Amino acid sequence: MIEGKKIFITGGAGFIGTKIAERLFEKNKIILYDNLWRNSMKDSFITDSPNVKFVQGDVINFGLLKSVIDDFKPNVIIHLAAIAGVDTVINYPVKTMQINIVGTY
């Protein structure tokens, strides 16, 4: 079990990010960083926890991303930010490549 850590999750409002945060928030401090393209976090109980903070931001906004990481000083970074879904990829190919490739880089 991970305990006593500062965990930074990109794509934190997505389904997987939210579920990971739900497993870890009681014994860790967590920042969920997400652009809210989709929002699974809205139905989760973790949003009321003092151990969880949400920052709305995009992984392609390097300045904000770096600032939040520098301030929080996480022990663990979990990178889950991505655009998924066939319809989304077809309708927004450039945005998909920016987030999935440049954002990961």
- Report the uncertain regions: none
Topology order in helix (H) and strand (E) letters:
EHEEHEHH
The total of helices stands at: 4
Q: Please tell me what the overall shape is.
A: globular
Fraction of residues in helix: 25-40%
Strand arrangement within the widest β-sheet reads 3-2-1-4
Computed CA radius of gyration, to the nearest angstrom: 14 Å
What composes the largest sheet? 4 strands, parallel
**Strand portion, in percent?**
15-25%
Number of E strands: 4
Q: Look at the helices and sheets and give the structural class.
A: alpha/beta
Quick overview:
The chain has four helices and four strands. It has 105 residues and is an alpha/beta fold.
